[in-house]
Design goal:
two-stranded antiparallel ribbon; 190 residues; alpha/beta; 6-stranded mixed beta sheet
Length: 190
């Protein structure tokens, strides 16, 4: 039994507008556009071959995840809202502009340190990831090799839970767009 956690490909908006300087307030629209974006790049052959080995596919409902899976020639058997990315809190700092990449790092750091309010807390995302890990394990027990198309932070939290449960990492291509990590069930226990 294997579980492959894939990160979606590079979204169109990230490919064409990542260098713009924006105010914190303008980041609300940028994040909404990012969440509505499809992918701009096709996956590498290695990612395609891992996907071809899958028996059961699940996906986040966000377009960048769904279109990534589609470009790999797969359709999800289930679309799971709990696979959505950990939300970014947006703080309003008037009169300051940064490239959106800087804002994204700042917002994620505030979220990781629990200093930002108004979005799903880190502890809640960890619990959601633990529930998803259990759901993916159940699917792997039924179907064999499960491929989950999701997002960077949530995949990391699911990976932490799989590690805690004794699953073994057998392959990893990092954490960039289009990357994946494959986990194998420990022998004799779930």
């Amino acid at each position: 039994m294997d579980i492959t956690l894939m990160r979606h490909g590079k979204p169109e908006i990230a490919a064409r507008r990542s260098g713009r300087w924006l105010s914190a307030h303008e980041m609300h629209a940028w994040i909404a556009d990012y969440n509505a974006a499809k992918v701009a790049e096709m996956p590498c052959p290695r990612t395609t071959s891992v996907c071809e080995a899958g028996d059961y596919f699940v996906s986040s409902p966000l377009p960048r995840a769904l279109t990534s899976l589609s470009t790999l020639g797969a359709n999800p058997h289930a679309i799971l809202h709990e696979l959505s990315e950990a939300p970014l809190p947006v703080i309003n700092l008037p009169l300051i502009k940064f490239p959106c990449a800087i804002w994204l790092i700042l917002f994620r750091l505030l979220w990781l340190t629990d200093l930002a309010r108004g979005s799903e807390a880190k502890a809640e995302v960890r619990m959601r990831a633990a529930r998803m890990a259990r759901e993916l394990i159940d699917a792997a027990a039924r179907y064999g090799h499960v491929v989950s198309m999701g997002h960077g932070i949530l995949n990391k939290f699911i990976s932490l839970e799989l590690t805690r449960l004794g699953w073994i990492k057998i392959a990893s291509t990092g954490s960039d767009y289009g990357s994946y990590v494959t986990w194998r069930s420990p022998t004799g226990r779930l």
